[in-house]
Amino acid sequence: MALSPIAAMILLLIGNSIYYGGVSNAPLLLVFVLTAMVAIAVTRGIRFKERVSVFSRGAGSPNLLLMVWIFMLAGAFAASAKEMGAAEAMVNLTLRILPARFALTGLFLAACLTSLCMGTSVGTIVALMPIAAGLADKTAMALPLVAAAVVGGAFFGDNLSFISDTTIVATQTQGCKLSDKFRFNIVMVIPAALIVAVLYVFLGTSATDGSFSSFTFHLSSFPKVLPYLAVLVTAAFGVNVLVVLALGCALTCLTGILDGSYTLMGWIDSSLTGVMGMSELILISMLAGGIFALISHNGGMEFVIDRITRRVRSRKGAEWSICALVAFANVCTANNTIAILSVGDITRRIAEQFDIDPRRSASLLDTTSCCVQGILPYGAQLLMASGLAGISAMSIVPYLFYPALLGITVAATIVFSKRC
Q1: How many Å separate Cα 231 from the centre of its chain?
Q2: With the C-alpha atoms ordered 214, 124, 229, 192, is the resulting torsion angle positive or negative?
Q3: Would you say residue 96 has pLDDT above 50?
Q4: CA-to-CA distance for 2 and 11, rounded, in angstroms?
Q5: How far apart are CA 37 and CA 51, in angstroms?
Q6: Handedness of CA 114, 118, 122, 127 (dihedral sign)
Q7: Does residue 419 have a pLDDT over 90?
Q8: pLDDT tens readout for residues 336-351
Q9: How many whole angstroms separate alpha carbon 241 and alpha carbon 235?
Q10: What is the pTM of this model?
C-alpha cells in the first residue's frame, strides 16, 4: 500500500477543486471523511481494530490536540471581540493610521514583523486575521486577498525567526547555527517579500481614500481595542499562543462587561458560538492526523524517499531531491515542522554526500516547507485563516503570492547555482 499517500492526496485535491471558492470548509471535511474511510479500508497486514487504533492515535496526537485548543480559544476570542465591537473599533483605528493605498501592504508588513517577533505563523494569523477581516469589510478589497496578505506575512517570520520551531528543527538536523542559516535564508526571502509588498501597493488601489473618510476613531472606543493590542504585544514578545489567546478572551470578558456590551452570560454565549464555528476545522485537523498516521504505517514515506533519491547524481539534483522530499512530507503531514523532522536525517546524508553546505540544506528545508505549508488548504494556517475570516480555505489560495514567489526564488537559486 505504498502508493496510498499519493492516492489520498489526489483525492483531497479533486475534492477541493469541486467546491473551489465557496464560503465553507464543509466540503473539505466531507473529502477528509471519505479519504479516512478509504485509508482504513485499504490498509493491510493488521486487523480492522488495529487500523482504527493507528488512525485514532494519529488523530489524537499531542501536537494535534494542542492545535485543537488553539482553534477553540481563537474562535472564542474572535467571536466575543466582534460581539463587543472591538473588531470594528480596531479597524477604524487602523483605517485612520494607514493611508488607503498602503493598507494592504501595511497589513502584510505587520504580519511579517509580528511573525518574525513571535516565531509562529498560526499565532500571527490569530492576532491579525480578525483585523484583516474587518478591514476588508470596510473597504472595497476582496476578503480572500486581504486574508492572503496576513497568511503570506505570517510565513515570512515562520521561515526566518530565531524562535521559530521550523528554524530550530532545520538547523539542528543539519548541524549548523541559527545565525548562519539566517544569513543564507534572508538572501532568498527579502527579494520575495519586497516584490510582494510592492505588488500589494498596486492591488490596494481599490481601497480609495474616499472609502476611508467616513471612519472615525473616538477616544471613548479605546478600551475596546485593548484586547487586540494585548494580543499583538504579547504575541510579539513571544508569549505562548495559548496564553496570548486566554488573555485576549479574559480581556474581552472584562472590557465588554464594564462598558455594557454584554453580560457575563452574553460573553459566554458569544464565546461558545465562536468555538462551535471552529468545529469543522477541528474535525478536519484530527481526520488529517489519522490519515497521515495510516500513510506512515503503510510505509508511504519510505517508498517516496527511496524513489526520489535513488537517481540523484549531482549537487543540483541533490538540492532538488531535498526540496522534493520535504515538500512531499509536508503534503502528507500538513505540518512543516514534522515534515522537516521526517526527512532531516536523510537530507543531512544527502548534503554530506554531495558537498552541500549545512546552512544551505537547512535553508532549503525550512524555506521549501514554508512554501508548501503556505498553500495547503488543509494546513493549520489556512484553516485558521478561513475560520476567522468566514470563507473557504481554497478561496484564499489563488492570492497567496508570497509563498508562491518564495518557491520560485528557491528554484532560481538552484537553477542558477554555479556548482553542478
Answers
A1: 18
A2: negative
A3: yes
A4: 16
A5: 11
A6: negative
A7: no
A8: 877 887 777 778 888 8
A9: 7
A10: 0.70
